[in-house]
């Protein structure tokens, strides 16, 4: 993508390959905006509902959102392609250096940004500094809010607590969180491959959003493997990265008007 | 010397000389009173309370209990959802208040330390009132920062406390610098407040009875006023006066770095450091004017200590700081305007013509137009209520400025899909709570410690004298320099 790695090295940051290790390609041309990825992500990662009021006020907790834009004014509007937006797992992430307690470190093994929930004290500096605005904050203990429950004979019953993913923590109030590239799935696949004495194969597993996408608009895999599907898709001529000019080295390539 | 001797040419007639002398009496330094009498005046001002005092005290106590402690407790229990912060305005009024209170705290040290170093004589009667503002303002600033945290009960993780897991704070984070700078400033300014207080506490100890005597006895640290004690005190104060000035500049610069280091349109500005320092002085000077006017109007004998000359001098300072603020504001603004960056451009349009544009223009009126139109006139500067009103408007304007920089600017980011306007909720009560607590602390302090540094006034009065040379009246300042041993 024409990124000058010397510039990164000069600033003393982690000099990673611009492509990183794990990567994603989102094809905006075939995205239908059905929000299946949003729902799948919420189920996989134990994301809470925030209720009508908070959602309208801008407190949705989704790690992935489908953005829509229009060009022009009604009635002559031209809809632009849907734009699923999630953490870009920057190689040179603005959110990382600003956390005063190291709750948002960079993972050397996966080469993605991690969020350590039980270290986070909630200064929200990382979210302010994220140019993609993809971090979500637990404004309340949403999992125990009444709108999360059914009222059965005066007792609150929380049906969604039965389908929590045991591989993922449930976050409490006052903690920042964000997309992890389904790191629990990465680890499960790696452990399985290791026990069988082999490498993780391309397409062996994928993230929840990619798995749920009915149009196959999301592809996930190894970017450092030039034979992988995600790598080949990303290296087509019409791949773009968002806000590339900020030198964040995003790991997600968007395909548009190909 | 700061007060230059006026050269009076030629011989004067007797009644002119008398008139001259009468004119000089309007200055505190040339209007000495016997030491015992002056001490008694300060003690009386401290011991006198009317029913109005207790009414104000009760109101402020109730406001502190409800709007500060109850509201904060409720927010801790419920989560930050009860406040107005959301995506994209992750920071709201809490940080506005933090910056505001640190700004207020600046003038205390500025007036006290810089004017002491430059030996500006008009500072003498009100250094203490200003220093108290520093300490109490910093308490509110610290409280506001902790209110802002999502999990405040873990705030001690921000401090570099050795622990078994070898977890350390991130010294790359501007918030970490902020914490260290503010902690340094709190400690430094509290000591700087305490040092000049010691002789006055000793004075109060010798003139009080009962629990007050015990209170002053403990605080005065056995000060007796020997030559050696004075020498030590002057040396220590001298060191602190010089040392606290760079700390003061660094604190607000570092507060501005919380914003300037962030990768956001409108924030990433190199001029933010000095701009914030001057902004802090701007609001701080205004606050000093308010405090002095209230002190003079409500406390006994204060019209002797705080005079028109002090409001005049303070008004001049306010005017100069207002001009400096205007310079930095336009320096920041115009450079960004002509920078042509798409997102900054959008942001500046949002400031001027968005839903909060009324705040933007009121800020300019309160911070620039009002001081410039009023403070140029000596007669107007000398009216306490007018100067206090200007100070109040400046403070409103400076609070607006921080509000525009934080929640209003946060609305605009590089992801237009998330743009949303911030509506404060419980923050409004918490803001009232911090103001009430600040005033409550001040109220309590005004009856517990001498608000006038009596010994400094007396020192100044001894150094100043009016001499008659023939028929001419010559004001003079002794060259004996007590503070520079």
What does this structure look like?
The complex is a heterodimer of chains A (258) and B (485). Chain A is α+β, with helices and mostly antiparallel strands and 258 residues long. Chain A has one domain (5-255): Alpha-Beta Plaits (2-Layer Sandwich), CATH 3.30.70.20. Helix content of chain A is 20%, strand content 15%. Chain A is built from seven helices and twelve strands. Chain A has helices at 5-10, 36-44, 51-57, 125-129, 183-195, 208-212, 229-234; strands at 22-27, 64-67, 70-71, 78-79, 83-86, 136-137, 150-152, 155-157, 176-177, 218-222, 239-240, 252-255. In chain A, the strands form five sheets. A four-stranded mixed β-sheet of chain A has the order 10-1-12-11. Chain A is globular. The two termini of chain A are 17 Å apart. With 485 residues, chain B is an all-alpha fold. Chain B has a single domain, classed as Formate dehydrogenase/DMSO reductase fold. Chain B has 18 helices and two strands. Chain B has helices at residues 14-24, 35-47, 51-78, 93-117, 127-148, 174-194, 197-206, 210-220, 227-260, 272-298, 302-305, 308-339, 342-353, 357-374, 378-381, 384-410, 427-448, 454-463; strands at residues 464-469, 472-477. Chain B has a two-stranded antiparallel sheet. The longest helix of chain B has 34 residues, at 227-260. Chain B is globular. The two termini of chain B are 16 Å apart. Chain A binds chain B through residues 54, 57-60, 65, 67-69, 83, 85, 94, 97-102, 119-125, 127-129, 131-133, 136-141, 173-176, 243, 246, and chain B through 78-82, 85-88, 90-91, 148-152, 154-155, 157-158, 167-170, 172-176, 179, 258, 261-264, 410, 413-418, 420, 423.
């Amino acid at each position: 993508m024409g990124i000058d790695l010397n510039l990164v090295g000069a600033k003393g940051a982690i000099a990673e390959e611009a492509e990183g290790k794990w990567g994603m390609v989102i094809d905006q041309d075939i995205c239908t905006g059905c929000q299946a990825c949003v729902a799948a992500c919420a189920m996989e990662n134990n994301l809470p509902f925030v209720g009508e009021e908070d959602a309208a006020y801008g407190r949705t907790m989704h790690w992935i959102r489908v953005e829509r834009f229009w060009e022009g004014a009604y009635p002559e509007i031209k809809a632009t392609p849907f734009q699923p937006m999630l953490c870009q797992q920057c190689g040179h992430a603005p959110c990382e250096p600003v956390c005063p307690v190291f709750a948002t470190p960079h993972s050397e093994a996966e080469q993605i940004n991690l969020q350590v929930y039980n270290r986070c004290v909630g200064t929200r500096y990382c979210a302010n500094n994220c140019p993609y605005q993809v971090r979500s904050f637990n404004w309340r203990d949403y999992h125990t809010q009444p709108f999360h429950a059914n009222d059965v004979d005066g007792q609150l019953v929380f049906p969604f607590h039965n389908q929590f993913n045991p591989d993922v923590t449930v976050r409490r109030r006052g903690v920042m969180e964000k997309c992890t590239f389904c790191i629990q799935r990465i680890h499960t696949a790696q452990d399985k491959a290791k026990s069988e004495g082999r490498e993780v194969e391309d397409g062996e597993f994928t993230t929840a959003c990619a798995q749920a996408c009915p149009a196959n608009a999301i592809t996930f895999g190894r970017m450092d493997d030039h034979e992988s599907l995600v790598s080949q898709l990303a290296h087509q001529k019409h791949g773009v990265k968002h806000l590339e000019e900020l030198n964040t080295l995003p790991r997600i390539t968007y395909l548009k008007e190909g | 010397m700061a007060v230059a001797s006026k050269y009076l040419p030629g011989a004067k007639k007797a009644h002119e000389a008398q008139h001259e002398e009468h004119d000089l009496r309007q200055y505190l330094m040339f209007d000495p009173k016997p030491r015992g009498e002056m001490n008694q005046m300060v003690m009386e001002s401290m011991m006198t309370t009317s029913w109005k005092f207790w009414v104000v005290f009760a109101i402020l106590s109730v406001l502190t209990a409800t709007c500060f402690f109850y509201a904060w407790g409720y927010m801790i229990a419920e989560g930050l959802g009860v406040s107005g912060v959301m995506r994209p305005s992750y920071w709201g009024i809490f940080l506005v208040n933090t910056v505001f209170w640190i700004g207020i705290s600046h003038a205390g040290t500025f007036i006290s330390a810089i004017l002491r170093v430059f030996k500006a004589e008009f500072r003498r009667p009100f250094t203490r009132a200003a220093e108290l503002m520093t300490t109490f303002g910093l308490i509110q600033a610290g409280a506001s920062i902790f209110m802002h945290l999502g999990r405040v009960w873990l705030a001690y993780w921000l401090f570099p406390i050795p622990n078994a897991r070898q977890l350390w704070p991130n010294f790359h984070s501007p918030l970490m610098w902020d914490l260290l700078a503010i902690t340094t400033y709190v400690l430094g300014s509290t000591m700087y407040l305490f040092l000049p207080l010691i002789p006055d506490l000793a004075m109060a100890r010798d003139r009080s009875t009962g629990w007050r005597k015990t209170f002053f006895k403990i605080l005065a640290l056995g000060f007796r006023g020997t030559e050696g004690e004075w020498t030590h005190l002057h040396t220590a104060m001298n060191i602190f006066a010089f040392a606290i000035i760079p700390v003061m500049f660094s604190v607000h610069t570092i507060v501005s770095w919380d914003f300037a280091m962030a990768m956001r349109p409108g924030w990433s500005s190199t001029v933010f450091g000095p701009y914030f320092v001057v902004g802090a002085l701007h609001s701080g000077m205004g606050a000093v004017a308010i405090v002095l006017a209230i002190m003079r109007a409500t406390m006994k004998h204060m019209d002797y200590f705080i005079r028109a000359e002090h409001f005049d001098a303070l008004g001049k300072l306010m005017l100069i700081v207002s001009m400096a603020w205007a310079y930095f504001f336009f320096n920041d603004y115009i450079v960004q305007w002509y920078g042509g960056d798409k997102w900054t451009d959008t942001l500046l349009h949002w400031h001027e013509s968005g839903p909060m544009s009324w705040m933007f223009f009121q800020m300019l009126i309160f911070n620039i137009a009002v001081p410039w139109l009023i403070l140029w006139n000596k007669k107007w500067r000398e009216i306490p209520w007018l100067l206090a009103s200007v100070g109040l408007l400046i403070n409103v304007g400076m609070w607006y400025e921080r509000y525009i920089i934080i929640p209003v600017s946060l609305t605009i980011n590089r992801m237009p899909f998330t743009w949303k306007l911030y509506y404060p909720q419980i923050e409004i009560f918490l803001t009232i709570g911090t103001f009430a607590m600040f005033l409550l602390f001040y109220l309590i302090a005004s009856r517990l410690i001498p608000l006038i540094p009596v010994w400094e006034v007396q020192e100044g009065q001894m150094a100043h004298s009016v001499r008659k040379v023939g028929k001419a009246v010559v004001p003079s300042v002794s060259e004996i320099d007590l503070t520079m041993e």
